[in-house]
């Protein structure tokens, strides 16, 4: 219990020597003390994060390193514990994470807003179908004698259209509601198809032709479905906007997936827009960098942090011919 410990915890040496540290400091352990002791006996050392209470009731988070000491017969006799105060670092990290989550949320809501017109159209179609088939169903039932076969077919179409409209709403809601990220086993091709469903009309409206080259043997990935779709949507919308602004033809967006030969899946979104200025490529990923009059410049920066949090990489290249390609990798589900 050196002077550093006295300063950090507010207890002086005389008051604590002979006491039990974890009782005094109300230690919160990341695992049980039994497990820590077992590890100490096995490996001779243990490292982890602990939460302590100081004398005046403040919480401190410490990076703790324990090492087991032996007597000359090799019997364990004592533990040396070294604690580094990382409270501020932890708070800064948490604040950063929260800020990133909030920004990512606004980015998703903004995306949903940009897609609103197309989505309304996506939903309107099945809804018209429901009305048409509902009327047809009533007519078949009113016939004398009622034509149950036809009525059943019409009702089946109502269920199909209703389900489709519900799916679109569910997808857009998932995107716009703040959700705690969860990592699951994800079929990237399927996630891409869902995004295409949402952005399809936007592409049509902008006269963008979409091609997909999705590997049939694509390995599943480990990731947060909504966040990965958010990345895809950002990249797709950026491509669509770049092509729209340049006025160049043809407007073609190609989405490719493949196993990268290692332990990752590689996704590429390629456009035929104006391409990228090689000197600006890294700047593009910085927060608030935008060349659009109404842009926020957060899209790529958020995409990059999402991909990095997944343990992957996101980068961009200018194509040989026309346009830009954005690539990202995500670890395969093991
Ligand atoms: P925003 O879309 O709000 O501008 P982003 O971070 O998504 O924010 O993009 C930052 C900038 O990167 C864009 O303003 C644009 O200049 C450039 N950019 C992004 N995607 C492309 C692309 N596919 N082709 C050309 N430039 C792009």
In short:
The protein is of the alpha+beta class and about 325 residues long. The chain has ten helices and ten strands. The strands form three sheets. A five-stranded mixed sheet has the order 5-7-8-10-9. The protein has a three-stranded antiparallel sheet with strand order 1-2-3, sandwiched between helices.
Structure report:
The strands form three sheets. The chain has a five-stranded mixed β-sheet with strand order 5-7-8-10-9. The chain is elongated and about 95 Å long. Helices cover 50% and strands 21% of the residues. The model has no long low-confidence stretch (mean pLDDT 92). It contains ten helices and ten strands. It is of the alpha+beta class. Bound molecules: adenosine-5'-diphosphate (ADP).
Throw out a few tags for this protein.
three-stranded antiparallel beta sheet, five-stranded mixed beta sheet, 334 residues, 10 strands, binds adenosine-5'-diphosphate, alpha+beta
Write the layout of secondary structure elements.
Elements (H helix, E strand, L loop, with lengths): L2 H7 L3 H4 L4 H4 L8 H11 L1 E9 L5 E12 L5 E10 L1 H56 L5 H29 L7 E3 L1 H18 L3 E6 L6 E3 L1 H22 L5 E8 L4 E7 L10 H4 L14 H11 L4 E5 L5 E8 L3
Helix pairs in contact: 5-6, 5-7, 7-8, 8-10
Bound molecules: adenosine-5'-diphosphate (ADP).
């Amino acid at each position: 219990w050196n002077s550093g410990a006295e300063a950090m915890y507010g207890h002086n040496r005389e008051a604590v020597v002979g006491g039990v540290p974890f009782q005094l400091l109300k230690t919160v352990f990341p695992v049980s003390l039994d497990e820590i002791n077992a590890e100490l006996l096995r490996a001779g050392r243990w490292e982890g994060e602990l939460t302590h209470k100081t004398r005046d009731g403040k919480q401190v988070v410490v990076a703790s390193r324990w090492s087991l000491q032996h007597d000359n017969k090799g019997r364990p006799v004592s533990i040396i514990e070294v604690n580094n105060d990382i409270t501020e670092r932890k708070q800064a990290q948490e604040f950063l994470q929260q800020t990133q989550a909030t920004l990512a949320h606004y980015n998703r809501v903004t995306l949903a807003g940009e897609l609103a017109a197309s989505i309304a159209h996506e939903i309107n179609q099945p809804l018209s179908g429901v009305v048409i088939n509902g009327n047809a169903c009533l007519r078949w039932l009113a016939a004398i004698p009622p034509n149950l076969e036809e009525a059943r077919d019409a009702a089946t179409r109502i269920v199909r259209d209703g389900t489709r409209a519900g799916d679109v709403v569910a997808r857009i809601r998932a995107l716009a509601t703040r959700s705690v990220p969860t990592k699951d086993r994800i079929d990237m091709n399927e996630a891409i198809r869902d995004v295409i469903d949402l952005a399809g009309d936007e592409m049509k409206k902008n006269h963008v032709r979409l091609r997909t080259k999705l590997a049939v043997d694509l390995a599943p990935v480990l990731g947060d479905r909504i966040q990965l779709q958010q990345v895809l949507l950002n990249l797709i919308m950026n491509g669509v906007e770049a092509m729209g602004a340049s006025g160049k033809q043809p407007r073609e967006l190609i989405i490719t997936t493949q196993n990268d030969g290692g332990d990752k899946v590689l996704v590429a979104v390629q456009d035929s827009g104006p391409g990228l200025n090689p000197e600006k490529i890294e700047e593009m990923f910085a927060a608030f960098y935008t060349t659009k009059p109404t842009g926020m410049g957060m899209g790529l920066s958020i995409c990059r942090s999402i991909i990095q949090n997944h343990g992957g990489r996101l980068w961009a290249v200018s194509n040989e011919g026309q346009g830009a390609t954005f690539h990202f990798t995500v670890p395969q589900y093991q």
